[in-house]
Amino acid sequence: MSLSVTLPADLVQAESMTLASLKKALSDRQQRRWTVTWRFEGLRVLKPALRLAKALEDAGHDVVLGWPDAGSAALAQRESSELATHCFALKDLMLSEDPEITGRLLLAIGPQPSDYEMVEQICKSWQGTVVLLNGKLEDAGVGIGSVARARRKGFLSIWRSAFHLEPLAEGALLQTEVEMWHLFKADPDGYRFLGTMPSKPDAEAIDMALNGESDSLGRQLGAVDRFIEDLSS
User: Fold this and answer.
1) Residue 177 burial (C-beta neighbours within 10 Å; 0-12, 13-18, 19+)
2) Options 3.30.300, 3.40.50, 2.60.40, 3.30.420; CATH of 11-232
3) First to last CA, the chain
4) pLDDT digits over 123-145, tens only?
5) Which residues, 6 or more positions from 191, have their beta carbon under 8 angstroms from its beta carbon?
6) DSSP code for 2
7) DSSP assignment string, 136-193
8) Of 7, 37, 76, 222, which has the fewest CB atoms closer than 10 Å, so is most exposed?
9) Can you give the pTM of this predicted structure?
């Protein structure tokens, strides 16, 4: 089967692709824990997150936004009067037992490894769907011991990716359909589609697919910078 896959030309198109992929994922009533990843250095996620939440509201979802701390929640409330009453700090949501809140779609923005236990606690009692936007719950500092293994087999294993867009040193990785990962190689005149994989490729698989050529550091960094600039324009 031949797939016609292209990278988004800018952030607006990336957000549109995210919404389409996420809406499709949310139609799966059996799976209620999803991730959305925009992995760009320096991306200010506040406004894109609010736009995504508003688009989900317009699509008929009752959305709650969970922010890492009270300061970021307050900033979001000031930025969007429409969504002000929907913005909470994750700590406040962890303490909530109101089914009017916990039955909604939770968009948790940017939780980090230090938030692992808090997010896990929220998910234990959250009746609605939870979407992690640019979340990074796995802590490299935990290492490969029993705690890390238990987390990977337990709480971290329940999440599925609804959308993923990531610049690489020599290309880009895009996932727009569940279990479909598309790899692109950075050429001087743009990005060339290499192929589709049924699961997220690891670093070794990516290197092999990109032909294992040893390019200069300048070219590698240039490929990343060019992709980020394209999305930011």
Assistant:
1) middle
2) 3.40.50
3) 33
4) 999 999 999 999 998 766 555 55
5) 7, 171, 172, 184, 185, 227
6) -
7) ----GGGTTSHHHHHHHHTGGGG-EEEEEEEE-SSEEEEEEETTEEEEEEEETTEEEE
8) 222
9) 0.85
